[in-house]
Amino acid sequence: MTALSPALPLWDDTPVTHRFGVAMAMHANPYSGELVRAIRRAARRHGCEITLADTGDSVSEEAAVIRALRADRVDGVLLVPAAGDEAVINGLVRMGVPTVLVDRMAGRNDVDQVGSENIQAVCALVRHLAGLRHRKIGFISGEEDMATHEERALGYRLGLGRSGLRWTSQLVACGQSTPGGAAAATAKLLDSWPSPTALVVASEAMMIGVQYEAHRLGIRIGRDLAIVGYGDMEWAGQVTPAVTTMAQPIEEIGRKAVELLLARITDPERRPESVRLAPRFIHRQSCGC
Which ranges carry the Transcriptional regulator LacI/GalR-like sensor domain (predicted)? Predict the structure, then answer.
């Protein structure tokens, strides 16, 4: 039986207006805990409680978690979707359950969702590297069946085009959205021809693997290889060299997710919204400038 975390109580005696289920993989991303805290703060401001359920980033566990939350009679669901089948999302939409997809946005327009902007953000990272005279810019992509990573891959290609560079498959490798996968992808790219002089890394988790592999090979980040990433890990500003990255607006994503869910509960017939919030460029030393 799927376990649900108890509803997180309000700090004071404010009457509870709604109770939301938050379904997400607690250890899938380095910022998962930060996102939960952002949602919790936003919910409390509106007098709402949340019940947290860990999906394990598995489609089957996600389905079990959603069944448990519905049996617990939550008023709405905030869901960070697992990669793969969208059957759970389809079911929530079909049954009219107030739902907001959070962080990992899907390529559909029948459900509310909020996350970071991906295409222009990654495009800007590529153009930053091109502005430093890099002409062989590699890309460590994430899971191919996730809309978020498809958008980041599109941003990479867009950035190359706007910089007057050609896309080539020899400069792209899939890191499977994991540190281990990214380490293997980095080794593959650095051992190929043409070998990249710079890398764009599509997620925080994969940046760990890229850093590991570069150090294992004795490559000096920021000197032998420029690296930029998407997502600002806690350690990103503490390593040497510190990581140049696009920082996701986690606090704003949590706040907007709660607001969208409340709006859906208030007006079930309103048109679904897809909100993309701009990340913040943090310039550090890993890009070599």
Answer: 126-287
Q: Are 75 and 265 in contact (CB under 8 A)?
A: yes
Direct distance between the N- and C-terminal alpha carbons of the chain, in angstroms, rounded to an integer: 52
The rounded distance, in Å, linking the Cα atoms of 268 and 138 is 45
Query: Residue 1 has what pLDDT?
Result: 41
Average pLDDT score over residue span 160-168: 98
Distance between CA atoms of 250 and 232, rounded to whole angstroms? 10
* Cα Rg of the chain, angstroms: 20
3-class SS of residue 119:
helix
Tokens of 146: 């996730």
Burial (CB count <10 Å: 0-12, 13-18, 19+), residue 265 = middle
* Residues 191-208 as b or e (16 or more Cβ within 10 Å = b): eeeeebbbbbbbbbbbbb
1-37 burial: b if 16+ Cβ within 10 Å, else e: ebebeebbeeeeeeeeebbbbbbbbbebbbbbebbbe
Question: How would you class 211 by CB atoms within 10 Å of its CB: exposed for 0-12, middle for 13-18, buried for 19 or more?
Answer: buried
In 3D, which of 144, 275, 119, 277 has the Cα closest to residue 200? Answer: 119
Q: How far apart are CA 130 and CA 136, in angstroms?
A: 9
Token couple for 221: 């980040």
pLDDT in tens, 94-153: 999 999 999 999 989 999 999 999 999 999 999 999 999 999 999 999 988 788 999 999
SS (H, E, C) 213-254: HHHHCCCCECCCEEEEEECCCCCCCCCCCCCEEEECCHHHHH
Strand partners for 26: none
Q: What DSSP character marks residue 196?
A: P
- Taking each helix axis as running N to C, give the angle between helix 179-190 and helix 204-216, from 0 to 180 degrees, rounded to the nearest 10: 50
Q: Which amino acid is at 171?
A: L
